[in-house]
Write a structure and sequence with these properties.
By secondary structure, the chain is an alpha/beta fold. The chain has 15 helices and 15 strands. It has two domains: about 140 residues, Aspartate Aminotransferase, domain 1; about 290 residues, Aspartate Aminotransferase, domain 2 (3-Layer(aba) Sandwich). It is about 35% helix and about 15% strand. A seven-stranded mixed beta sheet has the order 4-12-11-10-7-5-6, sandwiched between helices. Strands 1-2-3 form a three-stranded antiparallel beta sheet, with no helix packed on it. Strands 13-14-15 form a three-stranded antiparallel beta sheet. It is globular. The structure holds 4'-deoxy-4'-aminopyridoxal-5'-phosphate. The site of 4'-deoxy-4'-aminopyridoxal-5'-phosphate (PMP) has 14 residues, from helix 5.
Length: about 475
């Protein structure tokens, strides 16, 4: 069976996510469908034997590369003992061990783990738990959420409602909760010459106003710490996290940190929340903040199986803990909540943080990505290259001085994607874009040589995609 055979069979019945299916149709499709036969490390291989560097870690999940031997071995062993049991009324070793380890690793004070099986559901859990906490605490007026413009938290109706980009959201607007939107601190929008820190501090004024005005009706603020990933890898200064933590405390509002994309070392520290600078007014202040809810998924299982978790504080857990007749329990469940195989994959992934020390190697790889993109930064249609750890984003623009973007209909990002897939004879890569933004979010097992080749290929592809 060749690529063509699988493509035709797939097109007959499979409906791809987040896709206009017509893009895959025809002899020269806009968006080529790639049937993948196998994967190993940072590489995917199709049915015709072509290999592609998975430069976006398969939607940011596959942090230690495909089929990492340790994860594979641990999963094999787990299959020999327990595949699945419902978590309602039952518990098992993988979920207990994983919860213990997550509590050890997470920002201090997060002691309770509630499981789901995808990122959107972890966000739903946080939203419902926050609302329900205030309900149990005798504050039923608190029923709204504050969110940043351009944020993304998933596709289910609650998660979609607190997301920003209209492309995902507008059609469903009549179905959605009405959150309070606060302008994002996105530093791409800073005035020329302004520092990231200044721009971020200035943007916080909007959040402060929203909290002052609405705290009485607001359950929680939700945000993606440091990087708004699906919104085009837009970034801001970690000062925002410190200011927000303090303001939420002052106004009696929860803080939900959605680290589904940025957790597990992606930004250079284990959690993006760890980057928050210490409070300068506090003598023994520590860097980092603890949110009231921390949502994790994607990298949690190293990209092998679906799993998500929402961690929260003891005080929040206790607000639900009562005699059954008080009606305070959190009656939320998913069939595969805490699936033993997925938990085992997560435990194996956490082992790799100890044995492979990725945070130290990633510093070197991230430096190399920056150095190797010097020519891309100088390209006449690259308005900005920005980086936070193992995320490097390239913003294409029609006019880099005025920052006039390419019209979405020109699909320039997609052109880069196609060129990178065709690649050079010995090197092709997956650079699935976000509109006019091309980004690298590679598995941590990428080699320096592969980074060099990827940067050359991206430059080539950008050049071809912006020639006319
Ligand atoms: N939150 C963030 C920050 C995400 O990046 C994503 C996925 N891109 C989600 C939530 C939703 O996760 P899932 O696709 O697993 O539902």
């Amino acid at each position: 069976m060749s690529n063509d055979d699988w493509t035709q069979r797939s097109l007959a019945h499979v409906w791809q996510p987040c896709t206009q299916m017509q893009d895959h149709a025809g002899a020269d499709p806009e968006l080529p469908l790639i049937p993948v036969r196998r994967a190993e490390g940072a590489w995917l291989e199709d049915f015709d034997g072509r290999r592609y560097l998975d430069a976006v870690s398969s939607w940011w999940t596959n942090i230690f590369g495909h089929r990492h031997p340790h994860i594979v071995e641990q999963l094999r062993q787990q299959l020999d003992t327990l595949d699945h049991v419902m978590l309602g009324g039952f518990t098992h070793a993988p979920v207990v061990e994983l919860s213990e380890r997550l509590v050890q690793l997470a920002p201090p004070g997060l002691t309770r783990c509630f499981y789901a099986d995808n990122g959107s559901s972890a966000v739903e859990v946080a939203l419902k738990m926050s609302f329900h906490y205030w309900h149990n605490a005798g504050q039923p007026r608190k029923r709204r959420f504050i969110t940043l413009t351009n944020s993304y938290h998933g596709e289910t109706l609650g998660a979609l409602a607190v997301g920003g980009p209209s492309i995902y959201r507008d059609t469903y607007a009549p179905l959605l909760l009405q959150p309070i939107h606060v302008p994002s601190p996105d530093c791409y929008e800073r005035t020329p010459g302004q520092s990231w820190e200044d721009h971020t501090r200035q943007s916080f004024v909007h959040m402060e106003h929203a909290l002052a005005e609405h705290a009485g009706e607001v359950c929680a603020v939700i945000l993606e710490p440091l990087v708004q990933c699906a919104g085009g890898m837009r970034m801001y200064h970690p000062l925002y996290l410190r200011l927000l933590r303090e303001a939420c405390n002052r106004h009696g509002v929860h803080l939900i940190a959605d680290e589904i994309a940025v957790g597990f070392g992606r930004t250079g520290r284990m959690w993006a929340c760890d980057w928050a600078p210490p409070n300068p007014r506090d003598d023994d202040a520590q860097p980092g903040i603890t949110p009231d809810f921390l949502c994790l998924s994607k990298g949690l299982t190293g990209g092998t199986l679906p799993l998500a978790v929402t961690l929260t504080r003891e005080a929040i857990y206790q607000a639900f803990y009562a005699d059954y007749r008080a009606g305070k329990a959190f009656l939320h469940s998913h069939s595969y909540t805490g699936n033993p195989l997925a938990c085992r994959a997560a435990l194996a992934t956490l082992d790799l943080f100890e044995t492979e020390k990725p945070l130290a190697t990633n510093r070197l790889l991230a430096d190399l990505m920056w150095r190797q993109t010097a020519d891309i930064r100088a390209h006449p249609h690259v308005a900005e290259v920005r980086q936070q750890g193992m995320i490097l984003a390239i913003e294409l623009a029609r006019n880099v001085r005025s920052r006039e973007p390419y019209p979405a209909a020109e699909r320039r990002g997609l052109r880069v994607y196609r060129h990178a897939l065709n690649g050079r004879p010995d090197f092709a890569a997956v650079l699935r874009p976000l509109g006019n933004v091309i980004y690298f979010m590679p598995p941590y097992v990428i080699t320096p040589r592969e980074i060099e080749q990827l940067c050359k290929l991206a430059l080539d592809a950008i050049h071809q995609a912006t020639r006319d």
